[in-house]
Amino acid sequence: MTETATTNPTAPPAPAGGPLVPATRFAVPGRIEVSGRAATVWQTATLTEIRRETPRTATFRLAVPAWAGHLPGQHLMLRLTAPDGYTAQRHYSLASAPDDSGHVELTLDHVPGGEVSGWFHTVARPGDTVEVRGPLSGFFAWPGDRPALLIGAGSGVVPLMSMVRHHRLRGLDVPLRLLVSARGPEELIYASELGTETTPVFTRSAPQGVPVGRMAAAHVAPLLAERPSGGWEAYVCGSNAFAEHASRLLVAAGQPVERIRIERFG
Amino acid sequence: MNVTRGFTGRPRVDNPGLPPGQYDAGEDWPVLSAEVTPDLAPADWSFRIDGLVERPHTWDWDAAHTLPESAYTGDIHCVTGWSKFGVRFGGVCLDAFFDVVRPHGSATHAVAYSHTGYTTNLPLADLTGGQAWIVWEYGGEPLPSEHGGPARLIVPHLYFWKSAKWIAGLTLLDHDEPGFWERNGYHERGNPWEEQRYSGD
Fold first, then answer.
1. Which CATH superfamily is domain B51-194 in?
2. CATH number at residue A69
3. Is A154 in the same domain as A257?
């Protein structure tokens, strides 16, 4: 075989002795083996409880008797079916920690015009059934092993809360920190459950004496300064705009790119 | 059929272009990359094809732009459920790159990889015959970095995770080797018309 490289004559020459193979480093391998079987089977889930979290969000507890179990950070696919056979399906993060209760919990925003979240927020009541398949994807999963630096905004806190709950439920010693952004205290999901591991950031209104403003380098720096043994595994979840902002803050503060996992809404 | 009490759903649209289980995202174009968006200038971008080819080759930004221009106008489909209609991407058809490297007859699959290290696997047959492009324009403007700019692969007849952002190269193989999402439970081919979302679908 012969090697040829077409280059712009005005560009600097390629490094001698090698082809222009870019240095790529997307470590971020999946954390777990994913069960293909669990992912392909639709199961009936029965709504057993609805809990209001904030004016725009509520938690929906579902009984899924044959649930295969999940890790914090994983999601499921949920399907609603209309009488004419029309279906709508969405991916939702699991909010509950893995346990053996045969139940899982989802916390859903009431999306304006959302056909699935709208059904949950305005029609659903205990006893209703929907269909789910999962758990899905190992990429954003946290098995509870590595120090976890969790950064979320709005309902992006949902998969991160599964990690916080797992950490508490199992009494894990590995360091875990949550940095969460909300418009104001009344929109901070799980507010009553958050503890000393959490730093809330309020962007529109805050309690007396608490600053208002966007998440900034000053929020991230003290967390990175903790330097836990083995380094932080960072999990970022939120809108794309938030994820771009937060991931840039992390990179600027020295967090390795290959140890930042991002889940964006969409 | 497992009817959901009280669920009617959106008004039905007769859209033969919408694959099963998908909805029309309208003007939205969600960004779903799992990694940090790289700072990659056109001057730092390159694209290489190697593996089972006669002449492995690397193009830089200007060299890639000397190849015949080609555009894709049509639809794209994301495994998370959204489809986007009537998009226009400008760049070069992948066939023009293959004409230079000349794949061996033994090549059956490719691993596409990004400047971030993201990977995805594809049958070679899905990349040839005017079905795949390297693109740097969207709607007549430079492709934004969060959507894969300066240049990405597009394979619009498959779910869009196959269309690797920040494309850096293709390695041609005589076997299938799972890429990033494929190792994370996603389907090896990802045909939206057969709803091949997850491994085993």
1. Oxidoreductase, molybdopterin-binding domain (3.90.420.10)
2. 2.40.30.10
3. yes
pLDDT digits (tens, 9 = 90+) for B94-131: 999 999 999 999 999 999 999 998 999 999 999 999 99
Q: What is the DSSP letter of B156?
A: T
Give the start-to-end residue ranges of the domains of chain B: 51-194
The answer as to whether A4 is a domain residue is no
Residue B113 contacts residue B168 (beta carbons within 8 Å): yes
A171 and A89 both lie in a single domain:
no
- The domain total for chain A is 2
* Residue A23 belongs to a domain: no
B 97-136 near A (Cβ less than 8 A): 113-119
The reported pLDDT for the residue numbered A13 is: 34
By CA distance, what is B101's nearest residue in A?
A4
Give the least confident one: A122-126, A154-158, B54-58, B194-198: B194-198
Q: Looking at CA atoms only, how far is residue A29 from chain B in angstroms?
A: 7
Model pLDDT, residue B201: 86
Residue A182 lies in a domain: yes
Query: What's the pLDDT at B183?
Result: 84
Rg (CA), chain A: 21
Q: What is the full DSSP assignment across B69-111?
A: PEEEEEEEE-TTSEEEEEEEEEEEEHHHHHHHH-B-TT--EEE
CA-to-CA distance for B75 and B93, rounded, in angstroms? 16
- pLDDT above 70 as % of chain B: 100
The amino acid that residue A226 corresponds to is E
The H or E element containing residue A169 is helix A157-169
Of A1, A88, A263, the CB nearest to B56: A1
Does residue A24 form part of some domain?
Answer: no
pLDDT digits (tens, 9 = 90+) for A216-228: 999 999 999 999 9
Boundary-marking domain end, from A79, A101, A136: A136
Q: How many CB atoms lie within 10 A of CB A12?
A: 8
- Residue A83 lies in domain: 36-136
Q: Measure CA A60 to chain center.
A: 17
Determine contact, residues B67/B49, Cβ cutoff 8 Å. Answer: no
Which domain-ending residue is among A136, A162, A191? A136
- pTM (two decimals): 0.90
Predicted confidence at residue A33, as pLDDT, reads 57
Closest partner residue to A89 (CB to CB) among B10, B21, B169 is B21
Distance of CA A185 to the CA centre of its chain: 20
| One-character DSSP codes across B133-153 | EEEEEETTEEPPGGGTTT-EE
Say whether pLDDT at A128 is over 90.
Answer: yes
**Among candidates B46, B55, B181 on the partner chain, residue whose Cβ is nearest the Cβ of A2:** B55
